[in-house]
Structure formats: C-alpha cells, structure tokens
Amino acid sequence: MIAALLAGVERRVRRAVAARRAADPGPDDPHRGLYLTPEMVEAVLDDPVRIPGPDTTDGDPPPLPAFAGPLGLTALDVEILLIALAPDLDARFERLYGYLNDDVTRRRPTIGLALELCGVPPFAAAGRARFTATEPLCANGLLVVQEPERPLLTRTVRVPDRVTAYLLGDPAPDPLLRGVATIGTGTAAGRTEGADRVARALRAGVRLCYLRQPGGSGAEPAEAALAETGHGAVLVDLVALAEADEPLAVVSALGREAGLRGAGLVAGPAEALADPRRHGLLRTLTGHAARVPVLLHGDRPWHPDWPGATPLRVTTAPAVLTDRARIWREAVRDTGFPVSELDTAAVTAALGPYTLNPARLAESARAAAGFALLDGGTLTAAHLRDGVRAQNGAGLARLARRVEPAVGWPDLVLPGEQLDQLRELVLRARHRERVLGAWRMRPGGGRGTGVLALFAGESGTGKTMSAEVVAAELGLDLYVVDLATVVDKYVGETEKNLDRIFTEAAGVNGLLLFDEADALFGKRTEVKDSHDRNANLESAFLLQRMESFDGVAVLTTNLRANLDDAFTRRLDVVVDFPVPGADERLALWDRCLGPGLPRASDVDLAFLAKSFELAGGSIRACAVTAAYLAAEADRPASMADLVAAVRREYRKLGRLLLDSEFGEWLEE
Questions:
Q1: Stated pTM of the model
Q2: Which parts of the sequence belong to the AAA+ ATPase domain (predicted)?
Q3: Alpha helix (H) residue ranges in 479-529
Q4: What gap in Å lies between CA 396 and CA 477, rounded to an integer?
Q5: pLDDT per residue as tens digits for the range 435-444
Q6: What are the tens digits of pLDDT across the range 636-668?
Q7: Neighbouring residues of 647: CB distance < 8 A, sequence distance ≥ 6
Q8: In the beta sheet, which residues pair with residue 235?
Q9: How far is the C-alpha of 169 from the C-alpha of 172, rounded, in Å?
C-alpha cells in the first residue's frame, strides 16, 4: 500500500517539476552549479531503475493507513505525511525537493511545498493549521516541523525514523522505550469483574481510567479490558519512566507507539509520578487520552491534587492465586528453563504466603530460573522462594534487622500444643488469600489481610527462634524491629517511625518481629499529664495501623499482662511459651551441644536437665561457654566445663547457687 500511496506523491512531484521547468531561467545562469538543471531533472525522472511504476489507476485513491482513523488523521494529513516520508523511502525525492525548493541544500519538503503538492493555497488557514503542535500529525509525533526560526512556509518537515520503520512493517518498538515499556500479549487472560467494567467504559467512549488494585498492580485487568475491546496494549513502567534521561521525549514516543499500533497505554504504578516534580509527566501522559486509551493503575486511591483530567476510577480485586501461578510459569518459560517439575498446583501452593504484583512476580520467576541454573538442577519450590525473597528491597532493612532463617521445626523443643499453634499461624499466612479474599471472611471496616500473632513467655523460652522457624516454613525473611530506631522522645516521631516500618513492610515478603513488644503495645492509662496523653496516642495509632496491615507480624513479650486488651483482640494466634520441663531440657542440652562439639565420656546430660531449671536460651549460653572452655584446654567438652558454665549462667541470672544442686560435680 505504501508503494501505491507513494505513486500518488510522485505524480504530484512530476506536475510540480513540469510547472517549474516552464518558468525555468536560461542555462547561461552563472550560478546554475548550485542547483539542478532541467536536463538533470529529466535524467532523474527517466531513470528506469529507481522510478516506481507509473500510476495506472484512474479510480478512487488507495485507502488510508489503519492508524489514520484512531489518530484522527484526515486525508490531507496522510498526503502531507507521505510527502514528508518520500525522501526516506526513495533518495530521488531529496534531489527533486531541492529543485522544487530552489535550494539544493534544502532536500526535505517545506510546509509551503507540501501544501503546493497537495493543491492547498499557502494562505489557507485550514491547511497551515495541519502543522501546528495541537493537530494530529504533530501531536501524535508523526511529523516533526524543523527550523522554527524561519517563516512558516519555508520550515522543513520530516517523519521520525520510528514512524518510517512501522510503515515498512518493523514490529520492534521505539528504541526510546527500551527499559520503560513493553508490548502486551494482546490476550484477555487477566479478565475480572473490574476488567469487564473498564471494557464497558471503553466501548462507551471513555479514554482515561484509573484501576486501583490493593496489593497488586492492575496491569493485567487493564490489558484484558483493552483486548476485549480490540486494542493492543503498551505496558509502561512509570518508575522507570520517572528515572529516564529524557522522560518527556519518552512520553511523546509512548503516545506515538500506541497510536501507530491502535493500542492503549497501560501505565503504573501511578504513585511513581505523585511527586510534584513529576506532575508534568503525569499531565502529558494523561493528555494522550485525547487520542488513545490511557489506563493508569496503582494500589493507592487517585489523589485529587494529581494533574490532568480526572480519570474514571475502578477498584478491582487482586489476581487470584491460580492467575499468579500462571504468570509465574509463563515468565519462567520465557527464560527457556523447563517448568515441568512444578505444576500449577505446586506453584499455587508455594506462592500462597506472598503478595506480589505481576511485574515483581515475573522478576521473581526469572530469578528463580537463575538460581536453578546455578544449582545445575531442576527448578524447585526452594528456588521459587529464593526468587521471591530476592525481590525484597533494602528499605525495610534500614529500619529493622534482616535475618535469613537458618532453623526449622526439628530445632524447636516445645510441647505439642505450642507446636500446633505455630503450625496454625503458618496455615493462616499460607491460606489467607483464599479465606480473607475469595471467601471474604473479614469484610468491611478497611481491615487488612495481615496475620498477627503474640508469643508470650519468659526470656529464653524460644519465642524468637519460633518466629524464625515460622518465617523459614513460609519462605520469608525475618525482620526484627529495633526499638532504638522506633521510639523517639519527641512527640509524634515514634508514630512516624512506626508508619515508615509498616509502609516498607507492606512491599516486602517478610515476617515482621516486634521483640519486647510491651514497650510499644502497652496498656492505655487514665490521662493525668501530657506523657500519658502522648503514650495513649502512640497506642491508638498502633491499633489503627495494625488493623490495616497486610503482612505477617509477630509480637513477643515477657509480660503479657502489660499488653492492652485492644491489641489482644486483634491477634490471630496467641502462643504461651512455658518454661521447659526436665524432658524438654534434656532435648535442649542435646540440641545445643550439637553434633559438632566433641564430648568427653563423663558428660551426663540427664543430670544437667534434672538438676538445673534453665530456659532454652540459658542452656544455649551454657553450651557455648563450655565450648570455649574446652577449646582453651584443647580437649573435648567435659562435665566440669558444663558445670562451670552453669555456675556462670546462674550468677548472670542473679539466681541463688546451692552446693547441693551440683552433686558429685561440686568444685573443691
């Protein structure tokens, strides 16, 4: 079709050249070397190799390109575009345009020449208006008007290389979009109720929508809505756009790419442009809605202060687990790594504890494939978990201590009831999307989907280790909140620090541990002075913030009675850790000494377990002390080392030492 359209341009150029030749000055002009002679023009026109075949059609002109209608191009716009495009398709037109411009150095068409070739008088306002920045040709980035310092009629015009490439059938997106945008698959795989609502709005003529998906991105339902209405999608990462070297040029290229493809723009997260310094980008981006559908998405409500036209706002439910499993498997398959060992059911189960938007889900899949490739084996659920944890940013690590879990269920020595409660905490975190999301077992009130637990018990009874075991079972990192980074003597600063922690935790797949939580979650008291009022404000803020939390958090305390009853009501699981009995202490001594520490033949663990009432943390400390004593003596750990370690631990704890407790191991 391009060849047929170009033939029409050539006919106009031939007529224009003939008209110029009729009034051409004589060949004795001393300055003729600066431009083409008629004979040279004739030679170019008669070139049998480079001249397209003559136009033999006398009927209707060829149809307009497919993108002309969606972009609002008129027949005159298309003629102007082809005239500007001709030198990029056939170099002869450069020389011909130089002749028609009466200047061999100006080898592109000018506005005046383009109007002349189209048969439009140069003083016609409607014709001149086609070259302004607000009309479709320039507004869509299809035509560039150069040399703004010259009079309008002598300004040259050109077609950007990307437009030329697209018209010639090149499917690759504009190089300017690399790292910022990708071309969607054109499927309706993410079809949901929210996607159907957006599709109805698009059919009704709405061109600017904002899809809010709490805990997600909204990109999939937006792409599905476009596919349902016959549009492709250009998927835009607004975080990458905000960091681009020339973001305004990229935004312009986005509108052009979407217009050429007959696609819509799916851009998010919108909050990436919430900074007032980025409002110009947001305004330009939403301005494309005058020509192509623009579907923004994010997980926050649309702020009324954000610039541009107010979009139609739609809240859509997050992608269900089966959809997330499909996205994960497709992303792995795109890397070329086989996923046959992990079926959809296995991936669905493994993804249960995590909250990931489609973009981060795909990144985690690629990371998992990389980990499996390094191991030289099959892709497993462990690789999936490693890939998810690799997506955790460093924001929360600045506010809490990150711990990679290194213990499991066999390392816990607890009664059966407490173990069952810990397993209940795991299953709540694993199945919360189904129970709280699909089954709506926690409706209304703006409450989040978080899982909150309290571990109460004396120091050293295994509360922190149990949190680490739960995190390991769920495939999460453990983040231990440092109270020194939270509590602040200035009014309001503690609340700000806590809000910062909860906000960062919402974007991280980790387990948040508040150790010694009674320091923060204490009981509210009667207000007698400003200190009481501020303490009550902190507690009230925590109550509200925990209510909307979507992650997994564990509170530990040695003094459960000090916690406010309102906190207890919001907890999903409460585990009371008892002081270990003799049987548990025997198992703890054996575990703490471990298989690596050499033991002397006189070591009597049964005596130690029966005689000394110590918690697990103290037993661990005794084992480490005995190991140091054995290392200094360069021999296996003996009973004397262990008894000496117990004596030190008793003194550290401030407990009374009775000689009778040490039996035959009493030191002389």
A1: 0.66
A2: 449-581
A3: 493-506
A4: 11
A5: 877 777 765 5
A6: 999 989 999 998 998 888 887 776 666 666 554
A7: 657, 662
A8: 182, 266
A9: 9
